[in-house]
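Researcher: I'd like a structural prediction for the single chain below. Treat it as a standalone chain; there are no partners to consider.
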Amino acid sequence: MFYRVRWALLASVALSLGCAVPTLESRRDAAAPAITALQRGSFESAGKLAAEGLAADGDNPYGRLVRAIVRAKKTQHQLAIDGMTVIGGGVASGALNQKYLRTTLGDAEAELGQIEADLGVVAEQKGLSVELCLACWDIDWNGNGRVDDRDRRLMEIEEDAEGNPIPEGDPRRRPTFRFDDGDVAWARAFVSFERAALDVVMAYDWSEAAALAARRRDRPKAIVIRLLEPDRIAQARARLLEGLSQSDAARRAYLAETDDDREWVPSPRQKSHPMPLPVDQALYATWEGVLGDLHRIVESEEGIHAGDALALLGERPRWPVHGYLDVGRMLSHPKDITLDLRDLERFDEERDVDAIFASVLGEYYVHEMKASPLPKRLERMKGEVDQHREGLEHKLRYLFWLN
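Model: Treating it as a single chain, here is the predicted structure.
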């Protein structure tokens, strides 16, 4: 009798524990109102409904995903408007509102941190998916007070795989994507890279650069872009590395996918992808190579040979260029950036590119360093275009999209 009672109690506890952990399907059902509102483009309602659901189940990945997307839309929109206001006003007047700039970027960075926290929870749950038509959202992206044609076309696909215009009203212009696990890693990489960029901008005082851009006379002999917060450069470095790690996680997740349904970023095996960009195994190999190149550059294990970079851009300087750009040292040992305008003008007249790099970069421009293969890797892609094997624009658009 005692054993039967004990096993009955254990079974009851096991069942109660099993019921206490919601399934992914039940969590999707709970978040369905928020998902539907997001699909309609009702961001305020979607955010409110997601918050209500998360009050009951704070780890619901669907609720977290909806909240992350709502925050991302709000943050990107506000950042674009504030950025145009600050930069445009600074260039026009020659007096950059550094305090307002830092406040604006600081708010955006804090929001991105919350988005990353939500995406981190979402990433812990495998098998999640949600369908969204980004181009169907009516959003005043340019901040002119109304949704105009430029806003509507921002997310539309305007050309097919052959480069032919897709007619207005054609449903191919506004596809629905099915976002899943790999896309969560892609989003986390995007957020990490954006946070790194904001940290770099906030680390310096750009007032003198804005004044130079606006000044027509009384040009100064030099300008100094002062480093205000070295710790932000350290944060930027860490976030760049995290972004590269998440980008590689996305790459591996895409390659492991077995479905084929309206992919945001397809693998070479997947054919159902609304974006009219070619994908093959070679592109994924290039993606992996680029990630490795960038990681070694950030770690200062390799530098970018200035001559290789100029060759990629089609520039042929008069004199040989010997130095390397040590990007990793820029991130690990940041300092004020001083531009001697008189020297730069003289070096430009002499077409002494080595001297220009040395003047601008100082100790970050070194003469001995292991060369990164990144410029030559991109040069190889350019060569394939010359041989009419693949459109460079297609390849580069996907590489930048992925990374």
